[in-house]
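Example 3.
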Amino acid sequence: MTTKIQARDGSEPSNEVPVAPEILRILESSAFAELRARRRRFSAILTVLMLVIYYGFIVAIAFAPQWLAIPIDGVITLGIPLGLGVILSAIVLTGIYVRRANGEFDALTAQAIRSARP
Amino acid sequence: MIRPILRTLAATALLAPPASYAAALEGQAVKQPLNITAILMFLAFVAATLGITYWAARRTQSRADFYTAGGGITGFQNGLAIAGDYMSAASFLGISALVFGSGFDGLIYSIGFLVGWPVIMFLIAERLRNLGKFTFADVASYRLDQLAIRKLAAAGTLITVAFYLIAQMVGAGQLIKLLFGLDYQLAVVLVGVLMIVYVTFGGMLATTWVQIIKAMLLLGGASFMAFMVMRHVGFSVEALFEQATAVHKDGLAIMAPGKLVKDPVSAISLGLALMFGTAGLPHILMRFFTVKNAVEARKSVFYATGFIGYFYILTFIIGFGAIVLVGTNGFYLDAANPQGGLRGGSNMAAIHLAHAVGGDVFLGFISAVAFATILAVVAGLTLSGATAVSNDLYAHVFKRGKANERDEIRVSKIATVALGILAILLGIAFEKQNVAFMVGLAFAIAASANFPILLLSMVWRGLSTRGALLGGSLGLVSAVSLTVLGPAVWVKVLGHDSPIFPYDAPALFSMSIAFIGCWLGSVTDRSARARIEKARYVEQLVRAETGYGATGASGH
């Protein structure tokens, strides 16, 4: 048995594509809406953060190389910790994502899948 | 007999080095005396990997086994294998050479290569695993027209793989001449034959384990070198930098950005190619289907990012260590060259450092690892190309999804052998050519043709087949033509005076063209098919987000 899809998020309704009822039940569950909203927001924030860090570094190299050449400790310049910092931030940001996804998002996913049953 | 070897080696890791750097990266690949230790160690690696291939062959029965090792690779193993795919011989030799030559600038390149990984994690990794089975075309064609999208995706895959393979094969031939003292042709044939054996008999399982072993050897070897460098300077970072700036001809200038970044447009365009090209490389994307589920896919990216980041920090220490230990030792310098420079060329910095800290045996070890690295990378590339031929073109386009499993496996093995032979022939044909632009081009095509349709098919309901075809093909054509008209090909290969397109990296433009093409082709598409494709997004969305109904791991 299939049900015609009813658009619930403002998109044009379609009567041409049947959607399985369990898919619709997941789609309409509060856990799914919650998962989607939270994960989308979290991914967007982290992506923007990574882009800002990386392109901030690139723009500094292009426009203010002398700033990166400022010595901070003996011969070590500001650019060295900043560059290594970009590498570490990439690792840390993926780590932060995995941490939240392993707990919160996986729990919500399991909950959403459970709602597939009638 | 001047060969653009170091341009080649650099190219396989570094995207078409800016003109100011090209000179520093050029050199002669003079055949070195036979290096018996290195050859013996390499033979040991070959013996071990052939053993693995034998073991893997007995476990590779089904189509899922061949393409994705039955989905039985763990997140940690896959993270190592991904890191292995990414840590090419050239990124090891090329980036440490760049640090050796100009210090800080080497760091800029390695950072560009790393930052694509978090973005893959946040935007595509989990969805990709939930929606796909064997290739990224499975995902892109999930709700779109199978025939049209698979043809486009297969074209994008094969073109990306071809350019990447040529660069690797030429790099392998040059490297073996330098490190082992063997002939170019012999090296190319050896790489081609071994890779055909790994892939046809052992499929993805053998390819993955070859990659894992190589990644561990490379990380272990590089860690040892970095440790010995730090021991030499009393484990003081400050002492390392002080000694390096004291002996380097550019002195304190190596601690700050130099001439690598010419202008902001080039820098941003290169950054985009590195970042999103990684997310469109078929042999990398395929690795996400070798794990059980989205959870393992997520772990893979985390481990891969960690290993790759750690590796780049090691190359930075190795480069500075080479300034201190190699650059000051007359034994490693080229006596015949009035300008100084390293024996064997500037890309030898890490190799000479291996000798300086570990003697002949360790030199042999690092040389063998460098060669094993190329071998592992070409095996992965070939498998992804063969899968595009057998799964996308044969099974879905030619047989309309009704291929018999045994026939499909046979086609993929034939495709592997054909690609292997083609790689050998191209490797020999391009021996004396300047192939520096090819890896850059592979990344640009991956970022402009593969990535946009993959991403939009997953996150934008509005994408229709017509939009994907328009955007994907415009991205492909613009990436190729802007590269040809740019300085890397128009001036350096074709010998014209000035480029028609001023930038080395076209990604900023070709990616924009691709995304605009996808959008324009989709919003103007009023066909019934487009309406159905948009309506089917709902089902895809649920599966992408939750994994509900996703292909289980092992088929048996």
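Chain B has 24 helices and no strands. Chain B touches chain A through 59 residues (CB under 8 Å).
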